[in-house]
Specification:
This protein has 259 residues and is an alpha+beta fold. The strands form 2 sheets. A 4-stranded mixed beta sheet has the order 1-4-2-3. The chain folds into 3 domains: 42 residues; 88 residues, Fusion Protein Consisting Of Minor Coat Protein, Glycine Rich Linker, Tola, And A His Tag, Chain: A, Domain 2 (2-Layer Sandwich); 119 residues, 2-Layer Sandwich (Fusion Protein Consisting Of Minor Coat Protein, Glycine Rich Linker, Tola, And A His Tag, Chain: A, Domain 2). 46% of the residues lie in helices and 22% in strands. The N terminus is likely disordered.
């Protein structure tokens, strides 16, 4: 009987301990899930470049007016910003600028705070680089001569420049540019509507750091009837993420032909 009572008591004790452990385990799991859920909702996700580009269409002139404060300058300004779930910009600041006048960046920030991105499932953050005056306007006769010369040269659309410390796969770069076609296609379409011309060349010199981020862009002989189209497409290139080079940063020349 004594042994029997001990066995029964041990059984109940085991059940009780199991229930406590199960309850504790459930609480820990629940707490972990809650923490994970809260983390997912409070952390800011990265806003896709395509969504940024699409939302800003139609407002290009609003932002370009800011550059009129430094009309003789040539360069770029990168903004970092945060967006709430309603799609409104909560905060914006200048992350980088190659222009001498701070007022241009201040103007862009002021305009960007009015930008709308539509409802989002979570708060988000993003970056966008505005480019101004990357290339000079050319008249029709000069453009035709340059296009004929380009046809005669039959230059490659991709070239790793000797100043590069590292190397990068040409095919990978080309794939990134082609996949991101929607980022710059509207630049070309809008140019045709403005100027009525379709044929041209985009030639850019891309500075890509060891992490695959584009740090700067120079014009490398673009021949387009609308210089703003060059700026617009350069902004699209700034929004792309390239593969990380091997051995250090690279400088490449990349081109697109528009017929």
């Amino acid at each position: 009987m004594t042994a029997s009572r001990f066995t029964l008591s041990a059984t109940f004790l085991g059940i009780a301990l199991s229930l406590v452990a199960c309850s504790s385990s459930k609480k820990q799991t629940s707490s972990a899930q809650a923490a994970k859920s809260n983390s997912a909702y409070t952390s800011r996700q990265v806003l896709e470049a395509r969504k940024i580009s699409y939302a800003m269409r139609g407002n290009e002139d609003v932002y370009r007016k800011c550059f009129m404060q430094s009309i003789g300058s040539r360069g770029a300004v990168t903004l970092h910003f945060t967006v709430d779930t309603r799609g409104g910009v909560e905060d914006a600041s200048v992350a980088w600028s190659s222009l001498g006048k701070p007022s241009v960046g201040e103007c862009l920030v002021s305009r960007f705070l009015e930008q709308k991105f539509g409802e989002l499932p979570h708060p988000a953050e993003g970056r966008w680089t505005f480019v101004f005056n990357l290339t000079d306007p050319i008249d029709d006769k000069q453009r035709e001569n340059l296009l004929k010369k380009a046809d005669a040269d039959q230059r490659n659309s991709y070239e790793l420049l000797p100043e590069s410390r590292g190397t990068i796969n040409a095919g990978s770069v080309d794939e990134i540019v082609q996949v991101n076609y929607p980022l710059y296609a509207h630049c070309y379409r809008d140019s045709i509507r403005r100027r009525g011309e379709s044929r041209g060349l985009l030639r850019l010199r891309l500075h890509i750091d060891e992490n695959g981020r584009l740090t700067d862009i120079d014009d490398a002989g673009s021949v387009l009837p609308d210089p703003y189209a060059v700026d617009c497409m350069a902004e699209a290139f700034f929004a792309m993420d390239f593969p990380s080079p091997t051995g250090g940063p690279v400088l490449i020349r990349y081109g697109l032909d528009f017929q």
